[in-house]
Amino acid sequence: MASNDGSTGRGSTPSSTAGSPTEETALSPAHAPGPSRSQSSYERIGGQGGSSFFQTLIHLLKGNIGTGLLGLPLAVRNAGLVLGPLSLLLMGVVAVHCMHILVKCSNHLSDRLRKPYLDYGEAFQFGMENVSFLRSRSIWGRRVVNLFLIVTQLGFCCVYFVFLSDNIKQVVEAANSTTMNCHNNQTSVLVPSFDSRLYMLCLLPFIILLVFTRNLKYLAPLSLLANLVMCISLVLIYVYSVMNIKYPISLPYFGNAREYSLFFGTAIFAFEGIGVVLPLENKMQKPQNFHAVLYLGMFIVTFLYISLGTVGYVCFGNAIGGSITLNLPSCWLYQAVKLLYSFGIFVTYALQFYVSAEILVPEAVARVPARFALAVDLATRALLVVFTCVLAILIPELDLVISLVGSISSSFLALIFPPVLQIFTYHNEGLPAWVVAKNCLITLFGLVGFVAGTYITIEEIVIRNGSRSNSTMLHYL
User: Fold this and answer.
1) Could you report how far apart the first and last alpha carbons of the chain are, in Å?
2) Which of 162, 212, 322, 412 lies 20 to 30 angstroms, CA to CA, from 74?
3) Long-range CB contact pairs, 430-436, < 8 A, 24+
4) How many angstroms separate the CA atoms of 410 and 403, rounded?
5) Containing H/E element for 184?
6) What angle do CA 74, 102, 416 make, to 5 degrees?
7) Tens place of pLDDT for every residue, the chain, 477 residues?
8) 358-372 b/e (C-beta count within 10 Å ≥ 16 → b)
9) Are the CB atoms for 272 and 63 separated by under 8 Å?
10) Would you say 341 and 323 are in contact if contact means Cβ atoms under 8 Å apart?
C-alpha cells in the first residue's frame, strides 16, 4: 500500500530539489515552479495544471492500499476480534492526525521561508533550526528522515518479493487441483515445488529489467492496468470473505501482549501513505481543500482496513495466512485473482523502488566521470534490487517482513517524526502545554511500538528460520 518521498539532483544533497520523488510525481506531467509566496500564500507547485480534488483523492487511496491491506486479517487475529478492529480505528485516527500535523508544519515553515514547497526531510530540517541547540545539527534531521524513507521503500520492495514468491508458488503447486468449483476452500498442495526462495531468484532478473525503466512515465499504462486489476481482485476477495463466514463465530476477543506487538508492526505498515501527503498537497490546484481530501480518503482507507481485516479473520479464523490471498480456494477464479494481484504488485515494485533510487542513484553517478554515468546508474539499480531480494530470502515469511518494516521505519515516519516536528516548528511561538503533552504521548506510543514490535518480530524470525532450516534438513535426509 501502499506505500512516497526523497529526490536529489546531480551532486546535491538528497533533499535539495523542490520536492521528493513519488509515484504521483513520476507519473504526472512535468510542472513549472509555482509563483512566489508574495503573490499567494496558498499557491504551490500545482497551480492550474495541478491535480483536482478527485484525482488527489484517488492518489491518496492508492498510496495507502497495497500489500499491507492483505495482511490485516492476520493482524486482527494477533490482536483479537474485538481489540484488533478497535486498535485499527485508534491507529487510523492517530495516523491521520499525524498527517495533518505534517502538512500544517510544512505549510507554516514554507510560508515563513517563502518557499513554494518543502518535502518531509526539509520540513524536519527547518523545524530543527527553530531550536537553538539543534540548529547546527539540523542537516541531520533531513538525513535521518531520508534514511527512514529509503528503509521504508526498500522494505516495501522486500515485502513484494515475498508476496510474489508465496502467491506464485501456491498457484503453481495447486495447478493440478484447480477446479471450477469456488464454493469449497480447496487449498491443499498436491504437487510440492521449489522453496519460495528459489521463486524469488527466478523473479530477480525480471524485476531488475523492470527497474531499468528510469522514467516511470513509460510505466504509466502498466500502472493504470495494475490499479484496475488490483481493485477487481480486492472486490472479489471481499465478496468471497463475506459470503463464506461460518457461524457461530467463536474466536478470541483479545490476543496476548506478544502477538499484539506483531499486530502493531503490520497495522502501522498498512498506514503507509504518509510519504505521499506533502507531494499531493503541493500538487493540488486548490491545496486549501487538501484537508477535506485527507479526511475523506483516510476515512475510506480506515473503513476498508477494519472491515477487510475483521471479515477476513472471521472467514478463515486461525488458519489465516500472512496474506489473505493465500487462503483463497483453488479454483480458476481465485487463482486468477492471485496472479492478477501479483501482476499489480510486480508493477508497483518499480514505483516504490523509484523513491529510493532517486535518492541513491544520483549520489553514485555524481562520483564517476560522465562517460560511466549510465553504467553506474544501471548497476546501482541492479544492486539495490539484489539487496532487497537477499533480504527477502533471509526473511521469507510475509507476515514477519511486513511487521518488521512497519515496526522499524513506518512507526518513525507515521507516528514519531510528525509530533516531534510540530514541537520544533512552534517552539518559539507558545505551543500550548496540552499540545506538547499530546505529542509526547503519540511519540511515546510510537517508540513503545517500535521497540516491542521490532524485538518480538526479530525473535519470531529467528525461531521460524530455525524451524525452516530443520525441516529442510529433514527433507533432504
Assistant:
1) 41
2) 412
3) none
4) 10
5) none
6) 55
7) 444 333 333 333 333 333 444 434 444 433 333 444 333 444 555 556 677 888 888 878 877 777 888 999 999 999 999 999 999 999 999 999 999 999 999 999 998 888 888 889 999 999 999 888 998 999 999 999 989 989 988 998 999 999 999 999 988 888 776 666 666 555 444 566 678 889 999 999 999 999 998 776 777 788 788 888 888 999 999 999 999 888 888 899 998 888 999 999 999 988 877 777 888 888 888 888 888 999 999 999 999 999 999 999 999 999 898 899 989 888 888 889 999 999 989 988 888 888 788 888 988 999 989 889 999 999 999 999 999 999 999 988 888 899 999 999 889 999 999 999 999 999 888 889 999 999 999 999 999 999 999 999 999 988 887 776 555 555 545
8) bbbbbebbeeeeeee
9) yes
10) no
> What's the length of the chain?
477
> Using CA atoms, how far apart are residues 270 and 324, in angstroms rounded to an integer?
14
Inter-residue contact 141 to 42 (CB < 8 Å): no
C-alpha cell at 111: 510560508
Do 21 and 274 form a contact (C-beta atoms < 8 A)? no
CA angle (223, 228, 231) in 5-degree steps: 120
Output the nine-digit C-alpha cell for 169: 508458488
- Non-local CB neighbours of 267 within 8 Å, separated by 6+ positions: 72, 75, 87, 88, 91, 305, 406
Whether pTM > 0.70 for this model: the answer is yes
With cell 498537497, the residue in question is 281
Quick one: cell of 275?
A: 510519504
Q: Which cell numbers in the block locate residue 435?
A: 499540545
User: Interhelix angle for 274-283 vs 83-113, to 10°?
Assistant: 40
Judge contact between 261 and 408, C-beta under 8 A.
no
C-alpha closest to that of 234 among 88, 84, 338: 338
Nearest to 44 by CA among 55, 26, 32: 32
